[in-house]
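Support request, please re-run this one:
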Amino acid sequence: MHQHSERGTRPDRSAVTGWLATLLCGALAFLNAATAREDVYRVVFVVVGVVLVMGCVVAMLRWRRRARADGTGAPRPPA
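Re-run finished. Output below.
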């Protein structure tokens, strides 16, 4: 008989790799913003970093919502 674990299913490795790559690119954008000499470049790199990090967070939340809808995700804590 199949039993669900307390933690639920994990995302596949390709999804995790994509999330980590996106976060790394966001971190590099913030690093470039910190070392940029002109204010315009700083603003551009900060915006790019925010977009990348927020995109990664949204992707993780979508996976979690989809996993819960399928009944395979982590159970909700008791209220």
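Residues 58 and 64 are 10 Å apart (CA to CA). The mean pLDDT is 86.
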